[in-house]
Design goal:
The protein is an alpha+beta fold. It contains 4 helices and 8 strands; from the N terminus they run ββααβββαβαββ. The chain has an 8-stranded mixed beta sheet, sandwiched between helices. α1 crosses α2. The chain binds coenzyme A.
């Protein structure tokens, strides 16, 4: 099932804010770049540690939109007042792992802990179910307590760890693997 670019899937209110969950569109490039660069700046516990130029972000988004059209990816964004404040992406694996999707999520600092992350991820998981995904996989930095809390509350279970996989603030950290059967 492939959704149109910019299609709104749900809308809800939190802390007086109207939040929309929708598919990404080409014009999101500026907001997505700002979001990722702000995350890099705050040294958020994500893999990326270098800022993106507008050209790089446009290439990433073009590639993502093309992968969505081929049915190889699911991505949804959260929007507040017409600006993207969060995104969640699921990459569908290939061959003998076609039933597996790797998921990643980030919310802009100002909009965290008001429930956007959980709703956004739930929406992506619902879409994944409809496309035949049976197992969702993720990796998270061992000290990312907030993300681990969110994942556990959505039914993800710890499936192991890769010791010392992530260099964060001059220390090697374990990468925790988590999975959810859907
Ligand atoms: C992880 C992230 C996506 C969660 O999104 P969010 O919108 O803040 O999540 P929600 O508001 O839906 O839920 C947050 C939950 O974590 C809890 N929480 C917040 N800070 C916490 C902490 N330090 N330790 C444990 N739990 C914490 C909140 O109380 C809330 O739990 P509850 O719903 O049971 O009360 C967001 O914090 C983020 O983008 N972080 C930076 C990027 C990142 O770490 N991405 C994940 C990489 S694997």
């Amino acid at each position: 099932m492939i959704l149109k670019s910019g299609e709104v899937l749900s809308a809800f209110e939190r802390n007086g804010l109207s939040i929309g969950i929708r598919t990404p569109k080409k014009s999101d490039v500026f907001d997505l770049r700002k979001m990722i660069n702000d995350l890099v700046e705050e040294q958020a516990m994500i893999l990326k540690n270098n800022k993106a130029t507008i050209k790089e972000e446009a290439k990433f988004l073009r590639n993502t939109l093309a992968e969505i059209m081929k049915g190889n990816r699911i991505m949804l964004v959260a929007e507040v007042n017409g600006r993207v404040v969060g995104n969640c992406e699921l990459k569908i694996h290939s061959m003998r792992e076609r039933h597996v999707g790797s998921i990643g999520i980030a919310i802009s600092k100002k909009y965290r802990s008001i429930g956007i992350g959980k709703v956004l991820m739930k929406n992506v998981i619902e879409l994944a179910k409809k496309t035949g995904i049976k197992l969702i996989y993720l990796e998270v930095l061992d000290i990312n307590d907030c993300a681990i809390h969110v994942y556990k509350s959505l039914g993800f279970k710890r499936a192991g760890k890769i010791p010392g996989k992530i260099l964060y603030k001059n220390r090697y950290h374990d990468s925790i693997m988590m999975v959810k059967k859907i």
